[in-house]
């Protein structure tokens, strides 16, 4: 049912945006549009270059693959994130797992 609804809207939406659109009439945003909005707000400016690069890579991964693919730590082993080091090295950039 959700796939049919998503297809009728003709946009690549996450479930969250689909529900907001149907239930509350919010304009639907694609994952790319949502990621671009985060970049425009410059939310990552307070972090160092390495952390910003990792966060930007995660945003890009979200835009192309969806939220499900970045919720697991295993995403840190995939391109383009693995170029920033091992999962432990990436986690350490953020001050540890917690």
What does this structure look like?
- It is a single chain.
- The chain is mainly alpha-helical and about 100 residues long.
- The chain folds into 2 domains: about 1-30, no CATH class; about 40-98.
- The chain has helices at about 1-10, 15-25, 30-40, 50-65, 85-95.
- α3 (about 30-40) packs antiparallel against α4.
- The longest helix is centred in the middle third of the chain and has 17 residues, at about 50-65.
Helices and strands, with pairings:
Elements (H helix, E strand, L loop, with lengths): L1 H8 L5 H10 L6 H10 L8 H17 L21 H7 L5
Helix pairs in contact: 3-4
Mean pLDDT: 88
Largest sheet: none
Percent of residues in β-strands: under 5%
C-alpha Rg (nearest Å): 16 Å
Please provide the count of β strands. Answer: 0
* H/I helix tally: 5
The amount of helix comes to 40-55%
- Uncertain parts: none
Q: Which class of secondary structure composition applies to the elements? A: mainly alpha
Shape summary: elongated
Q: Span from first to last CA?
A: 38 Å
H/E element string?
Answer: HHHHH
| Number of discrete domains | 2
